[in-house]
Amino acid sequence: MTGVPYEDRAGPLPLVVVPGMLCDASLWRDVDFPEGHDVHHTPLRRADIGALAEDVLATVPGPFVLVGLSLGAIVGFEALRRAPERIAGLCVMATNAGAPRPEQYAAWRAMDELIAAGRFTDVVEETLPDMFPDRCPTPEAARRYRGMAHAVGATAARAQLAAQATRTDATGVLRTARCPTVVLAGARDTLCPPAFHQAIAESVPGAGLTLLPDAGHLLPWQRPEAVTAALREVVTAATHTTPAAAAP
Q1: What pLDDT, in 10s, does the model give residues 69-87?
Q2: Mean pLDDT in the chain?
Q3: 151 found inside a domain
Q4: Alpha helices, H only, the chain
Q5: Helix or strand or coil: residue 151?
Q6: What is the CA radius of gyration of the chain?
Q7: Which GO molecular function entries does the Swiss-Prot or TrEMBL record give (predicted)?
Q8: Residue 4 located in a structural domain
Q9: How many C-beta atoms lie closer than 10 Å to residue 238's C-beta?
Q10: Is the pLDDT score of 9 beyond 90?
């Protein structure tokens, strides 16, 4: 892909960073974002994927690099569908581009019912194992996850569960993408296994896939150096590529 370097037109590309369910900006605290690029963290507080994508697109004017984990990446796929000319680069991780499965709808409904009944802590404990390699967190990692999830809170969690149910299969959108794309997967992610990421990388023309040994779902915690390297890679590529509309 060729074109006028972004920095020659408008300064360094900003990064819009979107977390996963029950995660906030603290998820990324160990990641070294590319120097000189503004970083904007967009929380997930609305009950519809489309509305969340609009929040992402409203975060900054003009083109940007989208960085998303899990539900955050799914929101990024919808932003790409709505405004491909705005997405100068994609870095997605620990995610799934497929439509929800019946058992997922049932699990989300059950978690929402627990929260509505005042049992948000039970939902945090239910989701905790899937965040870590082989579902086995260390005590310190479990404490950190609990603290982050409770900071997100029950109200946002219910909105995120509702948003999950509005997901659609993003594979077709990814096939039209024409921005530099890096996909990261944890080899021991039981929630979003490597096969999900292989499918994403195969869908996006020219995408790169990195499989991280001994990593689970929360890659910015578990492999911050790999996430840092991926961000530098995609920002460099995006800086030297003119953002373009998706292919027809």
Answers
A1: 999 999 999 999 999 999 9
A2: 93
A3: yes
A4: 7-10, 49-59, 71-82, 102-116, 120-127, 139-152, 154-164, 171-175, 194-203, 219-222, 224-239
A5: helix
A6: 17
A7: catalytic activity
A8: no
A9: 27
A10: no
Query: Hunting for tokens 């100068």 — which residue is that?
Result: 88
Per DSSP, the three-state class of 18 is strand
Report the range of poorest mean pLDDT among 1-5, 119-123, 146-150. Answer: 1-5
- Which structural domain, as residue segments, surrounds residue 35? 11-242
Do the domain assignments include residue 141? Answer: yes
Is pLDDT above 80 for 144?
yes
Coil, strand, or helix at residue 188? coil
Best CA proximity match to 113, nearest among 218, 105, 151: 105
CATH number of the CATH domain containing 56: 3.40.50.1820
Q: Six-digit token pair at 146?
A: 């609990």
Q: What is the mean pLDDT of residues 132-146?
A: 94
Q: Domain count of the chain?
A: 1
Does residue 6 fall inside a structural domain? no
Amino acid identity of residue 174, one-letter, is: L
Q: Which token pair is 92? A: 């997605």
Is the pTM higher than 0.85? The answer reads yes
